[in-house]
Amino acid sequence: MTAKKTMTFEESMAALEEVVQRLEQGDVPLEEALTQFKYGIELSKVCQETLTNAEKTLTKMMTDENEEVLFESEAE
User: What does the record give under GO molecular function (predicted)?
Assistant: First the structure.
């Protein structure tokens, strides 16, 4: 089970929530719990990467010359 880059952010978050719920129940065999935990870490990394990329995109704007620049509050 690996986190797929083709999953949307929402799909990744839903899968991560499902993993957390299963692990919180505590009735998962140890081997499966470890596998689920590793999968949850992968999902978490994918979600964090998506959020970081979104943040980078949202802190930029386009000039009249079609160049990307940081918003003034970020550039100071």
Answer: exodeoxyribonuclease VII activity
The burial of 11, by beta-carbon neighbours within 10 Å (0-12 exposed, 13-18 middle, 19 or more buried), is given as middle
Question: What separation in angstroms does the CA of 11 have from each of 49, 59, 60, 62, 70?
Answer: 14, 25, 26, 30, 30
The model's pLDDT over 2-51, given as tens digits with 9 standing for 90+, comes to 666 689 999 999 999 999 999 999 999 999 999 999 999 999 999 999 99
HSE value, Cβ hemisphere, 13 Å, CA-based, for 68: 5
CA 76 to chain CA centroid, Å, is 28
Q: Which residue has the tokens 């957390």?
A: 20
